[in-house]
Structures are given as C-alpha cells and as structure tokens.
User: What shape does this take?
Amino acid sequence: MPLLKGKTAVITGASRGIGADIARKFADEGANLLIAATNESLLNQVKDEIERAGIDIEFKTVDISDSSSFSELIKYAMETFGAVDILVNNAGITRDKLIMAMKDEDWDTVLNVNLKGTFNGIKAVTRAMLKAKKGTIINITSVVGITGNAGQANYSASKAGIIGLTKSAAKELASRNIRVNAIAPGYIETDMTDSISDIARENFIKNIPLGKSGTGSDVANLAAFLASEESNYITGQVINVDGGLLM
Amino acid sequence: MSDVEKIKQIISKELEIDEAEVVDSASLVDDLGADSLSVMELMIAFDDEFGVEVPEEDYDKLLTVGDIVNYITSNK
Assistant: This one.
C-alpha cells in the first residue's frame, strides 16, 4: 500500500525545488495535498504536473512570515480536506552576503521567512493536530545550520534556529502523538544552488564522500518516510541527506 | 443538557476522568491531573462547542472547574 494513502499534507515552498519534489513524492505515495508558495502560476504548474486519479491536490499562495496568512492556509486545508496529518515546513530563502556587507534587511528577511515562518507553521497546525491526537511535522533545515557557512550568516543562523525549534516542538507535542523532525539537506541541485559557480561546485563535491550532489528526490524520499507511520518511533531528530558530508 | 453539564462533560472527556470528580472546587492541575497542554486542549474544545475563544492571558484565571463554568457561561 502507498505510504501516505488517505493522509493530507500541507507543503510550503512547493512551487519548485525540493518542495515540488516532496509534493511529487507524496502524490506518488497517495497523499492529498495542499501545496503552498508565493508564486501562484508556478504552483498551478506543479499541481497540473502531479495531479492524478485517486488524490486531491489544491494550491494556495501564502506568506509564511505572516502568522495570519499561515493560519488561513491551515484553515483552508481543514475546510477542504477535513484534516491536516502532515505539515512540511520547506519554504526558505537566501540573501547571501559577508557579515560586514549584510544589511539589517538581509538578516531580518531571511530570519522572518525561514525561522519565524517555520514557527508560524507549527503554531498554526498544532490546534488541528492536538484535536486529532496525531500528526507529523517535518522542518527542512540545512547542513549549514550545523556547520555554518561563510557568506550565509543569516541563512545558517535561521537553519540552526529551526533545529532548536524542532526539538522544542517535539518535546512539547510528543505526549499527544505529534512527531516533529527535521531534514538537513547537504548539496542538492536546485534553483537555489544553480547560481553557484562551477569552480565552487567542484570544490563542494570534492568533499562529499559519495562523490556527487544530491537531488530533491533524495530529500523527498526521507520526507515521505518521516511523514508515514513507518517512522512512528522517531521524533525530535535531525537527519542529514548529504552524501556523507557530515559524520 | 445544560451548558454547565456540557462543560463538565467536556472536562471529563478531555482529561479522561470520571464525571463525578468534576466538581466546582476541583483544581484542574492539582486535583484533576491536567498538564499545560491539556488545558489548551480544553480551551479548543470549549471554542468548538460554545464558540468562546479564551485569550491566552486569561488561562491563568481558570484554575478550577468553577472558574471555567463561570467564564464560559458568562462569555458565551
């Protein structure tokens, strides 16, 4: 049987990259989906691409940094599907600069979207999951949240914050059968990494034990496992999908 | 069923205790074994049943069953 048959998932940042790959995988596994992002036309494209018989897919634009916008998203999912079994807090942005050149706005925007956006998601979905006495939340962090990265003080701080947030939420909600885990992707080929120069890319890959970059599917496969009942005894964990980069 | 009976039934169900224990003087935490999360679950249940949304700053005032009965019936 498909891993997520009959479950409903809300996925943010699902208009492209890892989020779209997670949506694709969850659809393969039989989940009903509410995919969300800021760009409506891209969401519509993803919906058209992964729509199929046996599952329902809806999309809705959201500003995850705004708590009321996230609440509206969850409300819409409850009205449409009657439940939210799975929340994937995937949406994230970068504003890479050296600290000396980083403007307040670069810092605030990245922290507001990546970290506060994840908090807003957890807060918004908790009510529905508490009532159901079950649920699973998956937060997408990054290996740079563990290692740090020159030029990414804001991004890596936001991703480190997501790790602390994941563990706190896991502890708060475990007694109600709500599991909260984080995935830390390493070097994954996406739009976000397209802008990296060839030389920098080669240098990255040289340090990866498996000798290659990862794909969105590599992350999506783990997300499906963590969203499913196969991982019922796993909560509060940060699992790296990085070709062995961190050990 | 009266509102008061309904409120006590919800408390009994959410906290998984016998309805006979749900007396006005009973403290949610000390007598009925509620933890902070179950207090939030109670508030969600009251909102669903009576449409009374209890603001977080009022949680501290709702220490006993009687406090809840008074709050919900007067804010309904």
